[in-house]
Predict the 3D structure of the following.
Amino acid sequence: MDGSLGDVSPPGRLAEPGEGISPEELALAARNHGLPLEALRYDITPPGLHYVLVHYDIPEIRDGSVQLTVHGRVRTPLALDLAALRSFPAVTLRVTMECAGNGRARLVPRPVSQPWLVEAVGTAEWTGVPLRLLLAEAGVEPDAVEAVFCGADHGIERGVEQDYRRSLPVDVATGDTPEVLVAYAMNGGPLPPQHGHPLRLVVPGWYGMAHVKWLREIRLTETPFTGFQQTTAYRYRQEPDDPGEAVTRMAPRALMIPPGFPDFMSRTRFVRPGRVLLRGRAWSGEPPVARVEVSTDDGRSWYDAELAPPDGDGRHAWAWQRWQAPWKAVPGTHVLSARATDAGGRVQPLTQLWNRGGFGNNLIQRIVVHCGWGEPIAEWGELRRGASSSPAGTPRP
Amino acid sequence: MDGSLGDVSPPGRLAEPGEGISPEELALAARNHGLPLEALRYDITPPGLHYVLVHYDIPEIRDGSVQLTVHGRVRTPLALDLAALRSFPAVTLRVTMECAGNGRARLVPRPVSQPWLVEAVGTAEWTGVPLRLLLAEAGVEPDAVEAVFCGADHGIERGVEQDYRRSLPVDVATGDTPEVLVAYAMNGGPLPPQHGHPLRLVVPGWYGMAHVKWLREIRLTETPFTGFQQTTAYRYRQEPDDPGEAVTRMAPRALMIPPGFPDFMSRTRFVRPGRVLLRGRAWSGEPPVARVEVSTDDGRSWYDAELAPPDGDGRHAWAWQRWQAPWKAVPGTHVLSARATDAGGRVQPLTQLWNRGGFGNNLIQRIVVHCGWGEPIAEWGELRRGASSSPAGTPRP
């Protein structure tokens, strides 16, 4: 490469006006994937439907080889294998996780990176050791200001070769709101390779970049971490040289299960005239969600959806909440939306919140639905069979 | 919609020269996903890494509600629930499955559809009832020519509203080479929703379109099936009005685990100078694969890889085969490729085999790799830790 690294690992850029998705963005979209929106029907996202973003390659790690080290500004450095980690009290939390770049591909201008639309989310039950217990065991020195987490995934990003690393302030790392976990189980089983097998960090309420996968090292430092993923990436900036604000907790967002059935290529939706139950989920990094409103006229008017409270059990406080709202579909073309407001009064915007990285963009979802036509395209017998097993929202004949 | 259906569900088209990936193609790429190529390291693809293509929505089906009907030209129509299906002898087969459209997005001109690069493949162990046993139970009438399989997924495609349907000739449906399964388990557990929960067809050796998911009806017919997925889609055609040839079995293909480590955005690969073990998998719809060759000079010269035989046990006859080949990486930029030849002498082409649907395109894979630079970008200690858990092919210090 001899100086040519910049050519193959260039700085971030914005797409030109009207520029289609590039081959590089497609290569990321073919590897990483979102939640098919009909899977919002499941309280816990089934394996393979939870969104996945892998910066480099999924590393190959055998359980037997795992040694999580806790060192730096601690009194007693630790080196823990899986058995040692399992000897600590285990906690299971249901957590909704969203990529900080969710919605990026709909921004104008479009930041060129993983091209998410609205689907980079999922909910799982994570089991592991509270990080605060590991840090208490090691004994954090008074001068420690951050915990730096290092994963086993290795690559190059904008010219910087690195292992994936992120940090948390000591008060977050040693706190219990949220309860940060070093997780060794997902939905009751070992972590799948793409979700960090065998160990990952889980930071409830924070965007996905904080949940370091393939975790192998925790270093307490007396100075703030200045690595790539902390100070170059994952900042809210308007200009490249703007130091920017750190990306941390998830903004509130509601998503709707697209009602009816789709066209394969355009993904346009079709519903029969009649009553439709609109359903979906809503979440916030500062839970709970206090209100979900629905619009069926492209945001001109809104009405309240019925919103389920967070499951009473505190283990679900960081998980999405169910909502539903009735709609009477009449012939014509409609634009359906939902928007969430969290307990802190933060509400989803009707116009995009733009930044160079395309982070934390919780612009409301828009679903275009066509209702009714003169002649059913298929015989109604066939339609009924389709409807009987299609997602909620398909009107029953 | 009143006649406007064509506007939202238009005929298939080819991308204009230089046209980027469209929002519609991106919407499909965000829902469906391929196999991250480093996952070729696993004999059986872990949950969530096997490729998935869903034409419409993933239907919601509760196990209790399942009734698989077998009717039409049979002596005794059947209606079977899961318990009844489990009462038949169970067979487990390890099967490599590939989307017929794999490689489509690299074609010039590009057919506009699900934009696969090379990664639409995966291998799983499927357990179920041999279809021939179900058909023997029902008693196929002598005048039956095809079995038509209907799934519960419902949508519109190029203006045609439909439940997903495909057919097989009676001799294939009642044959045992391949052994066609009505599968109720994947890798030892219930089918995940996106893989056809609770029932799907598995047709070893055939492209994915034949493996009907969410299977609920099998109809024996005295005339060939002329439905959309049989006569409009999944045909090898050069012109829109060309009747075309039916897409059936997988063409031979070899894929390589990209060695070294990637740049996040460009996915360009980097390796250190020295010995690299190139590894991958190869398969064919007419197994076994007889030969895999490797090129490290963009196809100018080729040398034989070491190819594992199909696992002796016949249950693996339809699964991919492991291969490996040594390479000495020297500073510079290299293009790595592998190509498979099957027992029938079919070999992957060096130039694209184009058709309007972008089907059965098994053009050889090209991996661009950069080797060596003056100064390591990261300290070697960090690199060593990265390499120790990175995919095969990263040279060990």
Remarks:
- Chain A is about 10% helix and 30% strand.
- Confidence is low (pLDDT under 50) at residues 374-397 of chain A.
- Residues 261 and 267 of chain A are 9 Å apart (CA to CA).
